[in-house]
Amino acid sequence: MSELMLESAAWEDLANIPADPPRMRPLCIKCCRPVQVCWCSALPPEPLNPAGRIVLLQHPAEEKRSLRTAPMLSVGLAPGKCLIYKGKRFPRHDHELETILADERSLLLYPSANSVPIEQIDPSQGPYNLILIDGTWPQAKAIYHSSTALHGMRQVKLVSSGTSSYIIRTQPTEGCLSTLETAIEALSVLERDDRYREQLLQPLHVLCQYQLANGAVTHQSKEFLIRHNQYPKLIGRRLNRLLKHADNFKDDPSEPTERKNST
């Protein structure tokens, strides 16, 4: 076939491409996910209405993740009980957020050297604004260090051990939790109400079950993979320190292990 005929055939193929984009799958008006993969059926019968509020400082990259857990909080809690601010540095000249961060009843959930176990906070002194940084560990660390308004806040941490139910995403260590799980644990303590664990976690289970049924695999933590020589990348200094801390914990079980937010 001559070059001219090949070129003509190519142009003909291009001419047959439909001008209109393919039709998108219908989206759920609540979670904004395709209806076939919607997890809204697993939400609480009525949105839970805590006395306090969850305030997410969300890295812009999180919004692009299809399997993020923050939307489960925003629709699982009553209107106004989950506020989301996007950015890499806060408060970004936002008067409302400035007021929240300066409030004496605002608590930053972040495992800094100044953090105290959240169990030490007196719930009767609330209601509290619980501030969470929503992003990967490197993103959360960068947001914290670039947002000086966060440094002087009362800071709390989760110290009970456990394994994340977010099994379709790799966590840095065995004690890391998703944004949803971190908020659930904190709310359960501050509100003294186990309904947050019992009801708000169900959408995450549905999401994971659907993904596993359609080709996803269970992810072990980086800690597990490294210990079993299955992790192909070099690890950073922070993760190396966390693993050493885990080794020390095995030697001394009386020392609590921090739960950390990774999503």
TrEMBL record:
It catalyses: a uridine in tRNA + S-adenosyl-L-methionine = a 3-[(3S)-3-amino-3-carboxypropyl]uridine in tRNA + S-methyl-5'-thioadenosine + H(+). InterPro entries: DTW (IPR005636), DTWD2/TAPT (IPR039262). Its EC number is 2.5.1.25. Residues 24-216 form the DTW domain. GO terms for molecular function: tRNA-uridine aminocarboxypropyltransferase activity. SMART domains: DTW. Keywords: S-adenosyl-L-methionine, Transferase, tRNA processing. Belongs to the TDD superfamily. DTWD2 family. This is tRNA-uridine aminocarboxypropyltransferase. It comes from Anopheles christyi.
